[in-house]
């Protein structure tokens, strides 16, 4: 779905005075819920990204494999973003199959969007701490910025490699995420909704209500396909 909008995005980039900026937020989305969506909307509003792409992974590298199919997870993300014009679903990792390496996705995006579009990868602090274990992690800032989202009051200690990267690349202001195509790290505190995919799966397993934890369209899809039973 997002791929079909690349030409329009590039046309806007050529004609508009304001720099086009694309954020991506990956995950298993097993299932996607209002916590994911509230974070995505909050990020778009705070940083004025042109669009934020939710990228469901096909096969997570650092987590156990999801209990439902990749297509079902993709379907639910597609349903969840229908009502927000700045949120898109990007299918590339599902279509690519195999292990979902972030560096591959960023390289593809950079090749599609060109050298001048600002690309920002959004990650939670827990994922950021594990960055040195990611495939070719040293190359990520060549293709994108990193926006690290953490909960209030959490100040984790970084390993030596990660601390050096942060000190070298930390943005002096949020404007740097828009003014350059890649290369900066910014930390942002957000108060996330207390919802998790594991909570929803557990509620389904125990035949408890999941109402108001995710979009109604996603809730209906889970019921229709009797997922997480």
Through-space gap between termini: 29 Å
The outline comes out as: globular
Q: Give the uncertain stretches in residue-range form.
A: 3-8, 10-16
Largest beta-sheet characterization: 6 strands, parallel
Please identify which CATH superfamily we are dealing with: HUPs
Percent strand equals 5-15%
Corresponding CATH architecture: 3-Layer(aba) Sandwich
CATH hierarchy, class: Alpha Beta
Radius of gyration: 17 Å
**Helix tally?**
10
Question: Number of folding domains?
Answer: 1
Mean pLDDT: 90
| SS content category | alpha/beta
Report on the architecture of this protein.
The chain is α/β, with parallel strands linked by helices and 229 residues long. It has one domain (3-193): 3-Layer(aba) Sandwich (Rossmann fold), CATH 3.40.50. The protein has helices at 6-15, 34-47, 70-80, 92-96, 102-113, 125-129, 160-169, 176-179, 197-205, 216-224; strands at residues 21-27, 51-56, 87-89, 118-124, 145-150, 185-189. Strands 3-2-1-4-5-6 form a six-stranded parallel sheet, with helices on both faces. Helix 2 (34-47) links the parallel strand 1 (21-27) and strand 2 (51-56). Helix 3 (70-80) packs antiparallel against helix 10. The longest helix has 14 residues, at 34-47. The two termini are 29 Å apart. The relative contact order is 0.18.
Briefly, what is this?
It is built from ten helices and six strands, in the order H-E-H-E-H-E-H-H-E-H-E-H-H-E-H-H. With 229 residues, it is an alpha/beta fold. It has one domain: HUPs (Rossmann fold), CATH 3.40.50.620.
């Amino acid at each position: 779905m997002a791929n079909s909008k690349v030409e329009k995005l590039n046309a806007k980039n050529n004609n508009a005075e304001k720099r086009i900026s694309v954020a991506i937020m990956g995950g298993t989305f097993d299932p996607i819920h209002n916590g994911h969506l509230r974070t995505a909307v909050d990020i778009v509003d705070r940083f004025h990204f042109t669009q934020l792409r939710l990228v469901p992974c096909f096969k997570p590298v650092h987590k156990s494999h999801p209990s439902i199919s990749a297509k079902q997870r993709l379907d639910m993300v597609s349903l969840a973003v229908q009502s927000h014009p700045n949120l898109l679903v990007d299918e590339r990792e599902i279509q690519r199959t195999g292990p979902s390496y972030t560096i591959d996705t960023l390289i593809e995006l950079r090749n599609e969007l060109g050298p001048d579009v600002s690309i920002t990868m959004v990650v939670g602090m827990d994922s950021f701490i594990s960055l040195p274990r990611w495939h070719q992690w040293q190359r990520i800032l060549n293709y994108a910025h990193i926006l690290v989202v953490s909960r209030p009051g959490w100040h984790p200690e970084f390993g030596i490699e990660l601390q050096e990267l942060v000190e070298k690349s930390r943005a002096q202001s949020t404007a740097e995420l828009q003014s350059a195509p890649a290369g900066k790290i910014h930390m942002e505190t957000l108060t996330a909704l207390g919802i998790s995919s594991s909570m929803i799966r557990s509620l389904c397993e125990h035949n408890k209500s999941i109402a108001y934890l995710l979009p109604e369209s996603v809730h209906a899809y889970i019921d229709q396909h009797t997922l997480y039973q």
